[in-house]
Design goal:
The radius of gyration is 22 Å and the shape is globular. It has helices at residues 2-21, 50-57, 72-81, 85-88, 109-113, 183-196, 229-251, 331-339, 355-358, 421-438, and strands spanning 25-31, 60-66, 119-123, 144-147, 166-169, 172-176, 203-208, 258-264, 305-311, 320-327, 369-374, 377-383, 386-392, 399-405, 441-442. The N and C termini lie far apart (81 Å). The chain folds into two domains: 22-364, Alkaline Phosphatase, subunit A; 376-442, 2-Layer Sandwich (Arylsulfatase, C-terminal domain), CATH 3.30.1120.10. A ten-stranded mixed beta sheet has the order 6-5-4-3-7-1-8-9-2-10, with helices on both faces. Strands 11, 12, 13, 14 and 15 form a five-stranded mixed beta sheet that branches. The protein is an alpha/beta fold and 444 residues long.
Amino acid sequence: MLRRSFLSAATGALTARAAATRPPNFVVLFADDMGYGDLSCYGHPTIRTPNLDRMAEEGMRFTSFYAAASVCTPSRVGLLTGRYPVRAGQPNNTGPDTVGGLPLNETLLPQILKPRGYRTMAIGKWHLGYKPQEYLPTSRGFDHYLGLPYSNDMIPPFVKTNQPLEMYRDKTAVETIGDQSNLTERYTDEAKRFIRESGDDPFFLYLPYAMPHLPISAGERFRGRSRAGLYGDVIEAIDWSAGEILATIKDRGLDGNTMVIFASDNGPWHDLPDRMLAKGNQPWHTGSKNLLRGAKGTTWEGGPRVPGIFRWPGHVAPRQVSAEMASTLDLVPTLARAAGATLPNDRTYDGFDLMPLLRGERASSPRNEFFYFLGKRLEGVREGSWKLRFARDSASRQLEPQLFDLDMDPAERYDRYSENRETGDRLLVRLRAFAQELRADIAQ
């Protein structure tokens, strides 16, 4: 009995030492078109998200968290490269008939992690190119891939194309997708399998969900459950998925060595184009931006400002809510530093290492500014609480600089430029200089 206890204690000590020296695991859960206000912990009154709420309770929830862009492809470019999409050479969406994609000379996060012994997998929507095969995830640092190569609406009648929507396994299209209602469940099962089969190797799991991007649908176990209708059903399915993945990590005893991050690629798709109002799609099949102005495809706050939750027990203290600025651009340097990996020194990164903030070693974020792009056009810059937006008004078409104090006015209702000309003019100079640096366009 004593011998068995001694061996058990020794084995436990060895396991603990191995965990201490082994790089941490990373899981990035990335919703599609989920609005800033779609989770209970971000203020939604009827959608129930107990798992993501618990994840926020057990870590840090950001209230000024930004996707790299307010549309699909460039948002993913920023997350996986740590560079603004214009700098990385892919500022616009790809589609089913696109040849090429994110330039092959860009180094993605899994490629940075691989030298540290990581097993890597992407599950879900890729949208960074798939023709030729060199643009698929398994040529960009991921060991395995299961998912759709672009958005789930890129089929008739929503988009004019003869290319069927196909599920890929690694580099091969394995089936044509018709019914999309079980995609979240399929992706979740695959994610759990990957985590269970990772053995003692550190792993990086990237799960960009297909939804709530239109057309939305939900599996039988979720359909009709939410008071927020079909859209709520879809969000609650994603919350279930997060809960299943967190439970799998805990069951494997990896809670203390796994950072899990949840975010969205951009805000809700409001003011839908006519092409999307077909096959049962309704204008209310989109999400909530809470009090924010604008939505997907804009540089108002409702476009790029999204939920941002970080959980890593023992490293990120629980019950933290931070109004500090952070972005998906920051994931590359943050995860690379946490893994002990080295960033390439032949390029400029636009992200910052958030670990000192996440660990509580500093009170302020290393990020003090964020630039708002729409395609190749730079329309705004935030510095601290001040946001300068320089774009044409959709109604009047007038081009005037506007200045907002986002700490006091997150809804961007009150233009303060006239009373703060010095701040506004300084930010306008900064915006123009950054546009010149990146060879981006600015409104004329």
